[in-house]
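Appendix B. Chain record.
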Amino acid sequence: VQLVESGGSLVQPGGSLRLSCVASGFTFSRYRMSWYRQAPGKEREWVAHISSLGGTSYASSVKGRFTISRDNAKNTVYLQMNSLRSEDTAVYYCNNGESAWGQGTQVTVSA
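C-alpha cells predicted for this chain:
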C-alpha cells in the first residue's frame, strides 16, 4: 500500500489550494478515504472523509470551506481548500483506515 500526497504550498490567508493523494496497492474504489492534518505541536486530527459511494463528511472547523472528492479511475482523492486561515497550517495526510501514514504535504497559510 502506498499513499502519496501532493499539492501543499505556502498560501496567503483567504487563498485556495487543492491537495491530491494518489493511492496504490489496494482496491481504491472499495475504501472510504480520509484526509487528516497535523499542526506543529498538536495531535493529528481528522479533516474529512469520502465513502466508496461518494458520501462526504467534514470536521466542523473546515465545513463549508473544504471539499473532498475522489476519482476512482485515477486512484486519487482530492481536498479542495478555500478561504484558508492561518489555523489551517499543517501537514496534510490521506489514509484508507488501514494503511501506514505517507509523508504528507505541507500547507502553510501566512501573509
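Further analysis of this model is presented in Appendix C.
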